[in-house]
């Protein structure tokens, strides 16, 4: 009875996680499972024959347990994120809460494995059935299917489709170079602007009235977590992990996408002084490696910033609350501005909207009232209000003169309290630009975060070849984005087959082309002739 109850509860929980059924439905599935088990006398057959065997399904069950944990924690299981975080580091990854959840899942899986072993040893019907169960579990695990897709890229015939479309970011010198402030709002996607979410997004709406708001910025694969979103928007490429083709795939990374030039490299070459501030640890997911490796002179995370707090105890599981982070952001911008030693660039990464519940700051609680610990819309409203308040403070102190401000989500949110509502909508990332030289307007384009990179460069006054950089196209021009030309599904499909771009990112070497004449220099291929279509102006 105990074995049936454990397996029934686990099966019911897995079903509710992987579907949109309410959590209490797990008890229905448990009762059905236990009822069938009692009816068929599972584990206690009339002709019971005990045999000490190890079930074939133990490993497949364990892999499914990993998948359910990832799906429950993040909503979508992204193998790219799994590979990258294993290599880049997971220290300081969310505090005791994450550890407790992992321990509970581990103990639950041990209970399932022990139960299945007991059933197989005491019931010959289970000994026969679980072999087929093992094969079914292996074949149906989406994580293993995704791994197979990535492995197939090694032998794909057309594994350089994206790399052929990569354009080296060659930017001209600027006149009267503006400063740059980038605010990444953790998980605050534009989808929250839908009326069913009330006033959660209102403060970002008000900020958008002062600048250029981009609608239609979608999420392609390998851009759906924080480090990937920052690299997509600053380098114009998806974050393909070092992965299966890398000789050191199971060793810690020493650099992050060293083979390409990103925003920091371009700005540093123009004399910009660059700073990064993030409330979470800079060691997590290679943030420190990325920013140091791409010419940021100051890189500060939880460890450095906590020492500057008046109250060191005012932190959350990930690090600093956003009101503290933004106070320090103001101080950093003032320091750079007063030095008057050329233009500056500051990148700040918030944390208030982090799934599953967010980390609203004390200043938000004083403004919004008590936080129930669950409602993500409370945290979204907090994040939006803090961002608007920061911009207003900087503006009132004259610290945004001749400054481009970019406000964007790092990626779409993962599983939160309004997950079902979000996933029924056309989901988009937040992206807006503010600056005295920009006329307020809305721009509707089918785009991805890859297109943010060239858009930022052109907004800063750089002139780009054909308005392109990386895999992105400036959303301020009339060139078609990759999504407009090919569609998001095609891009994701091509990404799963790609290896050449992966080599470029991690080895720093352009892959070998299939040149018919190796003595003739080959120009960068932007589109194949078959891909070309009449260009249309859809800016509005």
TrEMBL record:
Keyword Transmembrane set for record: yes
Compositional bias annotation for Basic and acidic residues: 508-517, 529-540
Annotated keywords: Cell membrane, Membrane, Transmembrane, Transmembrane helix
Domain called Sulfatase N-terminal: residue spans: 235-461
Membrane-protein topology: Multi-pass membrane protein
Phosphoprotein keyword on record: no
Subcellular location(s) per record: Cell membrane
Gene3D superfamilies the record matches: Alkaline Phosphatase, subunit A
Chief location of this protein within or outside the cell: membrane
Disordered: region residues: 508-540
PANTHER family, alphabetized: LIPOTEICHOIC ACID SYNTHASE, PHOSPHOGLYCEROL TRANSFERASE I
Name of the protein: Sulfatase-like hydrolase/transferase
Organism of derivation: Vreelandella gomseomensis
